[in-house]
Design goal:
Blueprint (H helix, E strand, L loop, with lengths): L16 E7 L8 E7 L3 E5 L4 E5 L3 E7 L2 E6 L7 H6 L1
Antiparallel strand pairs: 1-2, 1-5, 2-3, 3-4, 5-6
């Protein structure tokens, strides 16, 4: 099944490249890198200079897949990844 804006929360996001397009802490905005880990409440992004662990409910991610750009509210990703994928 192809990843779309409607079903992105049902897919594994580790390994995708993401950019923080909005955040409650504006200093996080613009962070870009590869998603390397995900827990119930956090997402880890490896950028060129460092690894950052961010709270999902405080960020909005922009993910490019092929020629499609998807914007995802981090709140939609809150929950254990293995349970979210089953939904």
């Amino acid at each position: 099944m192809a990843i779309t804006a409607k079903n992105i929360t049902q897919h594994e996001i580790i390994g995708l490249t993401a950019e923080i397009s909005d955040a409650t802490n504006q200093s996080l905005k613009g962070i870009k890198g590869k998603i390397t880990d995900e827990t119930q409440n956090t997402i880890t992004i490896q950028s060129e200079d460092k690894t950052r662990k961010l709270l999902k409910n405080q960020i909005t991610l922009t993910i490019k897949i092929d020629n499609t750009t998807l914007e995802i509210e981090g709140k939609a990703l809150v929950g254990r990844p293995e349970d979210r994928i089953k939904k």
